[in-house]
Amino acid sequence: MRLSEARKDHYRKLAKRQGYRSRSAYKLIQLDNTHHFLKPGSKVLDIGCAPGGWLQVVLEKLGPQGRVIGVDMKEVEPLEGAIILHGNIEHQEMADSIIRLMNGNLDVVLSDLAPQIGGIWDLDHTKQISLSRCAFSIASRVLRKGGTAIFKVFEGELLHEFKTDLRIHFQDERLSKPLASRQKSSELYIVCLNFSG
After folding, report:
1. Strand-pair category, 187-195 with 143-154
2. pTM
3. Fewest beta carbons within 10 Å, which of 19, 26, 117, 150?
4. Which residues have a catalytic role annotated?
5. Residue 151: what are its φ and ψ, rounded to 5°?
6. Peptide bond into 51 cis (omega under 30)
7. Of 194, 171, 22, 196, nearest to 108 (Cα)?
């Protein structure tokens, strides 16, 4: 078994043992351990939340005073303490609903969005960055000043331009690849700190 497969299998088994809905929960745990953005009592939006592993981590970190809202096109089993919306953020009505509900005072926006992978890399990369831009459009209207946003991205020629655009709105942005990500995958996360508007 290759090292990347062994690591993937390790996190899958760990998630099952610890009660997380997906191995990707450990990506968020590792990102937060490095950048410390999930604080007790915070208000958090999780875009692309299915099947709910990230929501579980957020609920644990925020405690009973926190507020957590998840959004996904797929149905997500309810989680106590989280509001879950079903819809496509690429549709304006859904984006408007989130913005109305959030009212511009969120501490953190998380985006773990990915398209259906078709196997044509340029197309998959383009779709993924487009989804991340939709998530950023929502984040820019719901984050408080000083807030944090995390965007999953795929490496490729459009990534640099997206990072440049993010720099206009955040005082600090860093690329991160958690250990729980497959090391051969092109998946990265942009950690955007101190939203300035």
Report:
1. antiparallel
2. 0.92
3. 19
4. 152
5. -120, 125
6. yes
7. 194
pLDDT > 70? residue 39? yes
Tokens (6 digits) for 108 = 């953190």
88 to 46, 159, 169: CA distances (angstroms) = 13, 22, 24
Q: Spelled out in words, what is the top-level CATH class assigned to the domain 3-195? A: alpha beta
Per-residue pLDDT tens over the stretch 21-37: 999 999 999 999 999 99
Residue 10 to residue 15: CA distance in whole angstroms: 9
71, 9 contact by CB (below 8 A): no
Give backbone dihedrals phi and psi of 110, rounded to 5 degrees, phi first. -110, 135
Helices (H), 2-152: 3-18, 25-35, 53-62, 92-102, 121-142
Q: Which two tokens stand for residue 151?
A: 């965007």
How far apart (Å, rounded) are the C-alpha atoms in residues 88 and 70? Answer: 12
- Which pLDDT value is given to residue 119? 76
Q: How far apart are CA 4 and CA 9, in angstroms?
A: 9
Please determine, for residue 59, whether its predicted confidence score (pLDDT) is greater than 80.
yes
- Joined tokens for residue 17: 């043992």
Q: Are 77 and 52 in contact (CB under 8 A)?
A: yes
